[in-house]
Amino acid sequence: MDRRTFLSYLGTGAAALAAASSGLGVLEGKASAMSPSADHMFGFKTNKVSGYFQPISPSKEDKLVLPEGYRYDVVAAFDDVINQAGEKFGQGADYNAFFPIDGSSTRGLLVTNHEYTNIFALGPIADSGKTKEQKDKDLYYQGMSVTEVFQDQDGVWKLDTTSKYARRITGFSTFEITGPARGIPALQNATTAQGTFANCSGGVTFWNTVLSCEENFSDTAEENNLPLTHYGWVIEVDPFDGSYLKKHTALGRFNHENTAMGLTADKRVVVYMGDDKKDACVYKFVSKGKYDPAKGRGNSALLEEGTLYVANFKKGEWVPVTFEALSKALANEKFKAPSGVKSTRDELLAKFKSQGDVVTNCHEAALILGGTPTDRPEDIEISPFDNTVFICHTNNDAHGNIHGHITRIFENDNDLGSSGFDFEIFAAGGRQSGFSSPDNLAFDSNGNLWVVTDISTSSHNKGVYKSFMNNGLFVIPTTGPSMGEAQQFASGPKDAELTGPFFTPDERTLFLSVQHPGEMTEDLNNPTSTWPHRPGDKKARCGVVAISGFKFG
Ligand code: FEO
Ligand code: CA
Ligand code: CA
Ligand code: CA
Is 2 exposed, middle or buried (CB count within 10 Å of its CB: 0-12, 13-18, 19+)? Predict the structure, then answer.
């Protein structure tokens, strides 16, 4: 397919939407009993076209490159002041979610995750390890930011630092622990936890809060003498209420990438989640109770009780990860641990005494119960058009999956609450597709999947990764004649990864994080990137940009 064909496809908004909405050619005659997913297209009443772009070529430049006719504003960058108290925007910007104020697509709260720090925040680290000051900065610059953002008369996106909502959530904030691991011995009987860090991707809920995922938490916890079991959870914050900070243990503890929330056919809440490590599993949590829109944030209690399932891709089954099932497996004296589980039977019997222990040591329990080890499951999105579930399997060099792929799950009877499923490889990274190592996902209302890539910085522009150059943002239609074909929309600056794509409800703005530009820098006088190239500034500053220029047809 040539570019002209792709451009004209993107121009056929109404036709594409109709095809996508009907699920034709996707579910092969099965009823498309759609249930809503908690993304910016809740109910997808719009019919906007986020297309009409001339795809770009890969780039090695220290620039955020966009197609002709598009522009970006840096809304907030590392260390910018965000409020009257003088709090600073964190480092390692990842997930973004935009919450309109009074229904506006040009003013709202932007919630951003801060995943990690680097030399631009901490300075060089001595061989003896971080100083106390560096450890404190590390805890401060991770976590989350809530900022108020708006578009001025000239169309430029800016921070409103006078906002009463703008605030930081850091490694020092106090969280309430909910669910089966609250107060158990493995968590030192704690009912609260200090702080959040390693906040990777996340998701929004039906009740206008944000779920944020603690991913690679171990180093920060260990360096600060914090209990490892207090991290690796899904946390919930309310952008409009600074006092609402929860860690929901029912959703399991692992290297959480993100959440994708939907509803089962009988209106229970389902949350899909990936565990971003090599040979790790895909999960879904299904609440015990039913979603009631009238209860608003009260529905948050649904995340405290339910069943956690792990995907067995060979059988096409969702396997309940319960203490009951695990006890049964361990009761067998001939029990043999699957590869990936290092503990002996005796050690496992000592470790697992309750459902709290099961969620705390979720990866081990899941493998024992038949969860399929997969290739770094990162972002997950539920298609708002046909209820299929898209998972980025970033890559796994341990068994030769160098460029990764996007898996698409078809739940039985098109019900997100189903216990069985089928799947396909929707798109594969590699020379043939032009992208490698897919990570975060977002849908637009035209059925296109927006995919950012995460080729690890040490591999950029080397070996088999050479042709992809810097990490990018790609658009892949999920329906129509160009289904599965990627076209590049953006290329990040040097050493960076683009993360957290999130559209405003009118789809005229796309928020996107530029994460870890210049992260290979060893000498602050000689940085490998100085993006966003502020005059006189020699620091590379990760941050969030607002992209505009989308045409509508
Ligand atoms: Fe934080 Fe899996 O990326
Ligand atoms: Ca990342
Ligand atoms: Ca990621
Ligand atoms: Ca990643």
Answer: exposed
Q: At what angle do helices 13-22 and 3-11 cross, to 10 degrees?
A: 80
Q: Where are the domains of the chain?
A: 6-321+369-548
Per-residue pLDDT tens for 61-98? 999 999 999 999 999 999 999 999 999 999 999 999 99
Q: What is the pLDDT, as a whole number, of residue 456?
A: 96
Residue 532 has which token pair?
A: 């966003």
Q: Which residues line ligand 1 (CB under 6 A)?
A: 115, 200, 215, 257, 276, 378
Determine the distance separating the centroid of ligand 3 and the alpha carbon of 102, expressed in angstroms.
Answer: 31
Domain 6-321+369-548 has CATH 3.40.50.300: no
DSSP one-letter string for 218-254: HHHHHHTT--GGGSSSEEEEETTEEEEEEEEGGG--S
Question: Using one digit for the tens of pLDDT, what is the confidence trace for 159-169?
Answer: 999 999 999 99
Enter the pTM of the model.
0.93
Residue nearest to atom 1 of ligand 1 (CA): 200
| pLDDT, the chain, mean | 92
The neighbourhood of ligand 4, an ion, using CB within 5 A, equals 439, 454
| DSSP states along 507-523 | SSEEEEEEE-TTTT---
Please state the rounded mean pLDDT for residues 459-480: 95
pLDDT tops 60 at residue 444: yes
